[in-house]
Amino acid sequence: MRIIREPRGPPRELPYSLDHYDAAGNHVAELGRYPDLASGREAFAAAVRHRPQRHLFLRRGAQVIARNEPGG
Length: 72
Prior knowledge:
This protein is α+β, with helices and mostly antiparallel strands. 19% of the residues lie in helices and 36% in strands. It starts with 15 loop residues before the first strand and ends with a strand.
């Protein structure tokens, strides 16, 4: 029997992620992945409008491109 393992991590064609964190800095959920900065920024803006109280980050890997940190 042969076991095939898929590579872990995000696909290279979707490098931008929209992430939700709690107030303590713990990752809650990845809300989406995007192929380019423009679509990532649009999704980030929509998420902030929809839930302004959430701690949201638009990231490319470890690089934080935009953040919404209410009360902080």
